[in-house]
Fold each of these.
Amino acid sequence: MEPIFDKLYQFTYKIPGMPLDCHQYLLLRDPAILFSVGSADMARDFLPKVKELLASRPLKYLFISHREWDECGGLAVLHKMFPETIVICSQNAAGNFKFNDYDGKVIACTPGQPFTDGGLELVFLPYPVEPHYNLGLLAYEKNSGVFSSADLFLKGGDTAGVVQESNWKDLVDAIPENFLNMGPQQPKTIAALRTINPEFVAVGHGPCFICR
Ligand SMILES: [Fe+2]
Ligand SMILES: [Fe+2]
């Protein structure tokens, strides 16, 4: 399997009944981290591929942006296959994972909190995600330049492996007001986005972006 960007692997599934792709990503740094685990069906299908890519290395972390079926529906599946993996998520999501049959390790983080482990340096951004303004997180991994944007640049169509060239400032400027019902806290997210400078935007749904 070829990476979509440096040490970054994308796993794509169609969302049933919708013209929308759902992407998950493995960032094969030391330690390795997965961005989103997808639904249970997706997890059952792609986690064996993750295991293959890891070879004998552990999957230390799973980052979950927010508590929604396409981000964390596969948590119990992951926990069976990778019992040592630690979930990184917002305080809000961390309090709710028992509903996903997950009782593994969780680190609840807040926007701006520094998080460094070996070759990983994560920056967390606030994400007042739909549908209930739940406080989620977005994650930027500084050393790789990879930004995990969850639903932020959501677009439909067939987008597996699709990467478009763009410019970070233009991308942020083009986010519509109240995008996906982000509500009154959207300006906080936009302000936080302006403090980072990603090289690659790993989107949850739609084409990815390489920033020049
Ligand atoms: Fe979502
Ligand atoms: Fe999503």
Amino acid sequence: MNTQAQTADILSVRKMSKRFDISEPFLNRLIERRPRRVLTAVDEISFDVPRGKTFAVVGESGCGKSTVARLLMGLHAPSAGTIRFEGTDITDMAPGKPPALRRRMQMIFQDPFASLNPRWRVRDIIGEPLKNFGICKTRAEVTREVEKLLTQVGLSAADAKKFPHEFSGGQRQRLSIARALTTRPELLICDEPTSALDVSVQSQILNLMKDLQDEFGMSYIFISHDLAVVWYMADVLAVMYLGKIVEVGPKEQIFDNPQHPYTRLLMETVPKLTVGGIERAPVAGEVPNPISPPSGCTFHPRCPLATETCRTVSPELNVRSDGAQSACHAADEGRLPSWARIAAE
Ligand SMILES: Nc1ncnc2c1ncn2[C@@H]1O[C@H](COP(=O)(O)OP(=O)(O)OP(=O)(O)O)[C@@H](O)[C@H]1O
Ligand code: SF4
Ligand SMILES: [Mg+2]
């Protein structure tokens, strides 16, 4: 139980960036006279995760969603910026240090099989963090807690003696969730947790996650490329494009009145916001190479509203009248067509 005074936002990120040096080895560069190559995966993003709510991040493949998750978990070191968890700066904190703080954040991944040790039985997979973090002192306590966690995620106590390959994809994701819950985290970072699952199983896992959030009051960062899933899960929604947040705000505001042409493009590809079973049109145009991003607004090569200013000046994320924020010159200049009009056409 956290005894510290609670901040309204459980996590606050300011101007966080991640640049990967993807240069060839020094000698090759010297001989071939090639310069260093740097890929900016995350570019000065700032956001707050409200306590007990779901902060969703959506965007096309390669826009930096997983890199954000890995930075928050301390699996990558940020190139710049700060990360505060309940007011404490954890920017340079390696995973597990100090354990008391790190155990309050956990992560679940897209591929539950890859994140579960195939040679371990479930009782060891879930029991390990219980022992390592000193949550359970005796074997009997560990067994009791493992069985309780399995039941909480909709599995049975008897599953403790099985190996991961004995479960279906959906059941394995339940196992990952049970393992993440061992430390009773206050913040759960979920990176595409249902993308690898059959549509019929997707909604079961999403419902389980919602139930657990209600029961334990957890905050979620929920990453997905699927707007229908995001609509179901999010309280606050951030739209990412090429390493930047281009629009962020309460889910209803973003869905009812998107103020960024990229958000509109994403929404136009979802004919109906229902989880699972619907064919979605691919998003038109290609995501530019993040090694040499376009100048100005990086969305300009795909944007029907681009002007010369867009091609040269990067737009700021500005607060608009409805309280959400968007980074678009057309929105700032009142040039965006009304969304209702577009939707009716
Ligand atoms: N360790 C790394 N070294 C070099 N480049 C990386 C590394 N990790 C990610 N990248 C690059 O950073 C960019 C963002 O990748 P990231 O995995 O965060 O995107 P994503 O939004 O999660 O995509 P997806 O939806 O496909 O999972 C990509 O161009 C990717 O190639
Ligand atoms: S800033 Fe310009 S190019 Fe970028 S999304 Fe807005 S209108 Fe389009
Ligand atoms: Mg990813």
